[in-house]
Design a protein that fits this description.
The complex is a heterotrimer of chains A (506), B (85) and C (124). With 506 residues, chain A is an all-alpha fold. Chain A has 19 helices and five strands. In chain A, helix 6 (166-197) packs antiparallel against helix 8 and helix 15 runs parallel beside helix 18. Chain B has 85 residues and is mainly alpha-helical. Helices cover 82% and strands 0% of the residues of chain B. Chain B has helices at 2-25, 29-49, 53-77. In chain B, helix 1 packs antiparallel against helix 2 (29-49). The chains are: A mainly alpha (506), B mainly alpha (85), C mainly alpha (124).
Chain lengths: 506, 85, 124
Amino acid sequence: MNEAVTNLWSVPLLIIIPILTAILVNLLYNKTKAIRAISVGASIAVLAIAVLSPYGFHWFAGHPAVNSDGTYTFTASVFSWKLSLEYYYGPLQQILIGLMSLLLLFTVLIATKSLSKNLGPYLAIIFLTYVSAAAVLMTNDFYHLWIAVELGSLLVAGLVASSGTAYAQKAALKYTFFSALAGSGLAISLGLILGLTGYVNITDAIHFLMSNDLGGMYAVLYVAFAFLTLAWVYAGGLVPVHPLKSDVYRSAFPHGTVLLQTQSKLMLVAIGIVMLRLFGSLPFATDVMLVISVLTMIFGVVMALIQTDLRWILAYLIVSHSGLVTVGLSLGTYRGIVGGIFQALNDVIYMSILLICCEMLLYFGKGSTSIKFGGGVAKKSPWLAAFAVLGAMAASGIPPFNGFQSELILLQAALEQGLPEVAAVILMVSVSTFVALFRAIYSIFLKPEPEKTSESYVGRFKMPDVVFISLVVLLSISLILGVYPQLAFSFINESALKVVLVPWVP
Amino acid sequence: MIDAFMTVAYLMVVGVTIGAIAALLQKDLLRAAYITGAESIALAFLFHALLAPDLGLTQAIVGTVLMPGIIILAILKTRRHEESD
Amino acid sequence: MIEISLQLLGFIAATVLVVVGIAGMLYLDNLIKKLIAFTLLSDGVNLALVSLGYVQGGIVPILEPDASIFEFPNEAALIFGPGIVLTNIVIGVSTTAILAALIVVLYRRYGSLKASKVLKGDRE
């Protein structure tokens, strides 16, 4: 493990480059070529940094604890007091942020291809959404966590509203109104933890909670947990707010939804890990999280089954698969956490494939993705149909693809904990995903086209090269992870072990 | 001296409470926006009394100028009176 | 007059603001009223956080040049809550701005500020 002792150069760059790009692109406003060059360059730069960066810390204030012999202490075995705002970049951050940077690149390419009006502000919002998720993943202090979640929720509203339909604006308004509750709850939770422990750094706070007897103040910890759960539920669109979040997924542009769902799943992972580290030892804490996740899976999948529009089906499936991510985390065991994080990774990949296919359908089909509409796309664009079918197979957990591997781990983790009913729900999600997706895909792609509605899909479809390349890359990642899941495990294992064994280490 | 201070604090708490409820009961939205500004002044004083004078200053500026300003702008772009039906 | 501390007074006012804010956001029909209720809610949260840091008989947590550095930690009010509040005020302003923009856009579309009319759950 090559952890840098000094402040890491790469971590602030991962935050600053997208922010600067957002400002620049926003100023350029409508100069499409310049915007395209700058934003593609920035996303490639961010991807390169995420891949090349070494692991280590970055301190915004404060410093690592120094021993009497002049060495630094932030090893796993020794408690260290840092008293600082700190970012940590480790293997988990590397794989998740790397994947998100790749998706950012594809999103930017597709957005610059398919949009022409108000491109600058739209791309600025996309870049800032990336920043919010990256900051939540890397941060090891409550302050940045809170700010990034608040920023993220405002940006979701912006990204949704910029798609311009009345339904999108209503969804954005409702989501922002609810952000008042969730953001205030997160602020109060943060205030309570700060008041209880006195440390803004998560490592220091856990150290304090472990080494001091809180006595009667333990109840305050429960209140803090409740408010943090509210923020978690809100950021990821779990059960009480799933109607709001599915509206949001549905009404943004599909390529915007690629980044939206990535953001919310990474936030689920990051905040979930913080909750496990802080409150994992509280009785009932993981049970509450487990109940929320199971309800999310059931509601999402049931709603997905009764929809008649591919975009709605995908929106509800994303919600229900968020439940799959959190069910792994909330089991609280090593295998569960590995399964949850791996599921988040796979989910982001195969849902992006399906969403990009959906974008192409909108592009060709003049705005409709309803089941009752058209048919016979497979004849006009065989590649698109192939990608959609393969993506749907990955999503419903069919063996050669990545969805199968993570769902297998989740099933094993649930059975290990003696929870066969949770395992049954996970299986149900997998099967219902298959049914819901193939119902839509059959009637849109595979069914022969009715003769009369010739104006619906005209002629032969030619996919833009950018879309084709991104679909090929995503699908090959999906296949590689499905055949060699060890590639991802080498990144995830260490973080999951740390959460279980040494929760104070980021 | 302390008593006078506490009395003012009581008054400000009452002011915040009445201001909050009055702002929501107004039919005239513009007047409701002004009342939130007045409520913010009472809140700024409470911040000051609770040993956070820096926040009191910030709240006084933001709460009396910026927030009502945004709300008034929104009202000017839409309509001033609540719809009756 | 009943003797209660300033901290408790702050918490009472904060509770009133939060309850009035949430009730207003839930039950009022006018979108601008909902917006005003949101600002009240965020004010209430700020007041609760500031009250959290109050120390009875304490001093303002700013180190004067001639103050004793040893007495300061014992006397000064806690800065944890207030440290967050400054950011929360800014977040409140930006959220208000976004909400106001969305309300204006929706008003242009529907010609009404009634939430029951504008936010009807129809799907395109």
